[in-house]
Amino acid sequence: MGRTFAPVARRPVPVATVFDSHEPADHALGRSVGGFGTKIHIVSDGNGVPLNVTITPGQTHESTQFEAVLAPIAIWRPRTGRWRGRPRRVAGDRGYHAHRIRAWLHDRGMQVVIPPRRTRATHPKRGRPISYNPVWYRGRNVVERSIGWLKEWRSVATRFDKLAVNYLQTVKLAVLMRYLRILTV
User: Fold this and answer.
1) What does residue 59 show for φ and ψ, rounded to 5 degrees?
2) Is residue 15 part of a domain?
3) Which of 63, 107, 164, 177 has the highest count of CB atoms within 10 angstroms of its CB?
4) Residue 132 to residue 157: CA distance in whole angstroms
């Protein structure tokens, strides 16, 4: 006669990330139009040098991270010997066209170089029309080139890291390599 075994009842065990308290529960992975992945939010100066980087799940809209990416930036001014916390102007694509973002920039004395959404032309709102300088807006391509350069790093483009904090450090390591390349040229 063969033995029979009773099935063992297994309870799901909640697994918490023990590596870092800053690790998001979703590991900064999410669905977007392009598939399952992570979105990199980057701020760069006029020469394409990255100043700050954050990551979010793929479905997160860019405008939700605007203040978080831009606020910690400080630029050293060798002429005066002090830090400058605000750029003179900020350029962004149409995804950043929001009253909240424009008000945040105006409160800090920065010029807004963000074109209005195309629906504003067909459905104009009352009040002062939103304008931007198209000549300054042409300089926004340096951010796109900076992201393109960043994605040449295989580990950044494919995200081999499971944890979001490790992936963010990989992105920041690629940015540091960019700084080193600039300093050695």
Assistant:
1) -85, -5
2) no
3) 164
4) 33
Residues 61-99: pLDDT tens digits? 888 999 999 888 888 888 888 888 788 888 888 888 888
Q: What is the C-alpha to C-alpha distance for residues 169 and 133, in angstroms, rounded to an integer?
A: 35
User: What is the SS3 assignment for 39?
Assistant: strand
Angle, vertex CA 89, rays to CA 172 and CA 85, nearest 5:
55
- Is residue 6 included in any domain, yes or no? no
| Number of independent structural domains in the chain | 1
- Can you list the residues of the chain whose pLDDT is less than 70? 1-20, 119-129
Side-chain half-sphere CA neighbours of 100 within 13 A? 7
**Hey, what are 85's tokens?**
């916390």
CA distances from 17 to 27, 76, 166, 169, 175 (A): 10, 37, 13, 17, 26
Q: How far is CA 12 from CA 9, 15, 17, 42, in A?
A: 10, 9, 16, 38
Q: Cβ distance 98 to 63 under 8 Å?
A: yes
CA distances from 13 to 8, 10, 16, 22, 26 (A): 15, 9, 9, 21, 17
In terms of pTM, does the model score above 0.85?
A: no
Boundaries of domain holding 58: 30-184
- Whether 97 is in a domain gets the answer yes
pLDDT reported for residue 107: 92
